[in-house]
Write a structure and sequence with these properties.
The chain is an alpha/beta fold and about 675 residues long. Helices cover about 30% and strands about 20% of the residues. The radius of gyration is 26 Å and the shape is globular.
């Protein structure tokens, strides 16, 4: 009897498009092919396909005569790699993130590419014990709350050092004893090595590690160990959320706020959203944790959607460091290290202790500010910082495209003392070496960490005491756990505040809070000095004074007033082309198509009014990357299905210049 196979490909075709093939002539009828990969001829080329369904008769919607149905060349797997649950999950990913089912399945078993394309600043806890230790009262209450309630969504909230990792591990041990499996997600394997080592040491051969350093064959080997139940605890970065764990009993997301959980390539999934879907489908707990929750997670805790478990007591000793701001606007500096910070560095080095100087380099060099009152220019429509385009002498919003001429005097106080601020990385390194000529300085950022393992080598060398001053960007914040560290200096805390992104304040607050929690881990004399032109801005004052709830309350108030997440949903469409004109024309044509698609959606019977805004088209904040010009459109509203429908209609039906590539990002975490 002939058997027909429905096969999907890792290509950007319409959402659920599958192709019909015949099974091999030597196939055994009793063996299902669903979940296997197949070597097939597609057009004139050989490629790999994923078998998602099978039937004994030709599908009615095949559209091809039976005589023209090709057989597969061969099966690539002895056993299915994808369970029915994972195929169902791939279909959901396809619908939600607007990609093909084949692209979704391919993302589940990636071939060793890095998973940190959107990373921010995950900070590993102190190395947890390799054997279970006695829990504090707070930790015991948290474990019981996670395991013994009907609530599915949980959040473990508390400062660094309060023992969140131990709660995760002991909850996992309980689930394992019940015969269940566990997925444990960390932001990036290389920078949370202590946690990974502790999990492997605690659970032994029952642990599987999925990470970007594995070869495709090694990753496939781990995948099969999980399917065979040889591994019951899976620890990994973003894509480990798809692990085929039989009898999955819990998913853990450590450092939930971290940006690397969002994929930077198609499908642009967020591991937190995928974990929520799997949790809901299986009725199992999802446990998230961080010292600085995302604003969306905080709002979910405040509204009761997510159960909060709070840890307050630091278990490793030490004390929270002394932290204070240095107001740069009150100083007439021709350099970037203030006299107070320079003095603190000199004193620390004299004691034989170590210093970290931190740069939040992800910022635009030119942002407008008044040196008299601190006034900053913002968009009248979006309330995000305007970026100064020096060549055009214009201030422009990279959300909606609104622009204005830079004022000659401050609109707030009338002062003529206005200008543009910003620092550069290499300039700061030169200044540090000049000011402290006898100090051993090492710089760590994406520009000078080139080969695999170099980052860990430099951090280990600093931990051993081979260097006195560590100078770096967000990459450095990921490893701040050094016994001899006494002083942390943040060179310019507010560069991130001036990014044209509504999440800029959230990132700035999280960064300062996390960095502050690292100094003074082993001694009570840790110090943090925060240099800023905006000492009165909420993210900075709240981080410095530890008034965390106040920050989230104010940020949520602003988000609600401006109709940004979590009070709305976003879909971002980016148009890339070799010339600016091609990108702009494609975006302009797309805006009209989206408008018509949304209108058509509303005309459906029983369809609710979408009230979706179309922001743009406007040039992306980073207008040109890799010789490609970029324009973007944002869809903003509360009816996500309407926006997804309109975006899918655009992606699969828009006849545009062949040189234009369109990216679609549902619920983006960055708009740069």
């Amino acid at each position: 009897m002939k058997r027909y196979l429905q096969i999907v490909l890792n290509v950007p075709l319409a959402l659920n498009r599958a192709f019909t093939y015949r099974d091999c002539d030597d196939a055994k009828e009793s063996e299902s092919r669903v979940g296997h990969r197949a070597d097939i001829k597609f057009g004139n080329r050989r490629t790999t396909g994923f078998i998602v369904a099978e039937s004994d008769t030709l599908p009615a919607d095949c559209g091809v005569d039976e005589t023209k149905i090709r057989p597969i060349l061969r099966l690539l797997d002895d056993e299915p790699l994808f369970t029915d649950e994972l195929i169902d999950l791939a279909r959901w990913v396809s619908r939600f993130y607007i990609c093909s089912v084949g692209e979704a399945l391919s993302a589940m078993l990636p071939g060793g590419r890095r998973e940190s394309d959107a990373g921010s600043f995950p900070l590993a806890e102190d190395a947890p014990d390799t054997t279970a230790r006695t829990l504090s009262d707070e930790q015991t209450t948290a474990v019981q709350g996670i395991l013994n309630t009907q609530t599915r969504l949980h959040y473990l909230y508390g400062p660094t050092g309060t023992g969140k990792t131990e709660v995760f591990l002991q909850a996992a041990e309980t689930l394992l004893a019940r015969g269940k499996g566990v997925i444990y997600l960390v932001p990036e394997i290389a920078l949370t090595a202590q946690v990974v080592e502790a999990v492997v040491a605690r659970f032994g051969q029952t642990a599987a590690v999925l990470h970007s350093g594995l070869t495709p064959s090694q990753r496939l080997g781990e995948w099969k160990r999980i399917l065979r139940r040889d591994a019951r605890v899976v620890i990994g970065a973003r894509s480990a959320v798809f692990a085929p764990v039989p009898d999955l009993g819990m998913i853990i997301i450590d450092e939930e706020h971290d940006g690397s959980y969002k994929s930077g390539s198609t499908p642009r999934y967020h591991a937190r959203q995928v974990a929520m879907y799997r949790s809901a489908r299986r009725g199992i707990p999802l446990v998230m944790g961080s010292a600085t929750p995302s604003v969306e997670a905080w709002h979910a805790m405040e509204t009761g959607t997510v159960a909060r478990h709070t840890l307050t007591k630091r278990l490793a000793g030490g004390a929270m460091p002394g932290i204070r701001t240095i107001d740069l606007s009150a100083l007439a500096l021709d350099c970037c290290i203030s006299p107070e910070l320079a003095k603190a560095v000199t004193e620390t080095l004299a004691q034989g202790r170590q210093v970290i100087l931190f740069l939040n380099r992800r910022g635009f060099t030119h942002f407008f500010r008044c040196n008299s009152c601190g006034f900053e220019m913002k968009c009248k429509n979006c309330s995000v910082a305007l970026t100064f385009h020096k060549s055009e002498k214009r201030l422009r919003c990279h959300y909606c495209g609104w622009q204005t001429v830079p004022p000659q005097e401050c609109p707030g106080c009338g002062s003529l003392d206005v200008g543009y601020s910003g620092f550069g990385t290499e300039f700061i390194e030169q200044e540090v070496r000049a000011k402290f000529p006898h100090a051993r300085v090492v710089r760590v950022d994406t520009d000078n960490v080139t080969h695999k393992g170099e980052l860990q080598e430099k951090l280990d060398a600093f931990r051993r005491g081979d260097y006195d001053i560590l100078l770096g960007t967000q990459m450095v914040a990921k490893g701040l756990n050094f016994p001899r560290l006494q002083l942390v200096g943040i060179i310019l805390a507010d560069t991130g505040l001036h990014l044209p992104d509504f999440r800029a304040q959230e990132r700035t607050f999280a960064l300062i809070t996390q960095v502050a929690g690292r100094a003074g881990r082993f001694f009570p004399d840790g110090r943090v000095l925060v240099q800023t032109y905006s000492p009165g801005r909420t993210p900075i004052t709240c981080a410095v004074h530890g008034t965390i709830a106040e920050f989230y309350d104010e940020e949520l108030t602003q988000r609600a007033a401006l109709h940004f997440p979590p009070f709305s949903r976003l879909v971002r469409l980016v148009f890339r082309a070799p010339t600016e004109q091609q990108a702009e024309q494609a975006a302009t044509g797309a805006a009209e198509i989206l408008h018509n698609a949304l209108k058509k959606y509303e005309e459906k019977p029983d369809a609710a009014k979408t009230e979706t805004e179309i922001l743009g088209p406007a040039a992306c904040p980073i207008a040109k990357i890799a010789a490609n010009w970029r324009y973007q459109i944002l869809l903003r509203g509360n009816n996500l299905v309407a926006m997804q429908t309109a975006a899918a209609d655009l992606l699969y039906n828009y006849q545009h210049d062949s040189n234009v590539y369109i990216e679609c990002d549902v619920d983006p975490v960055s708009l740069l």
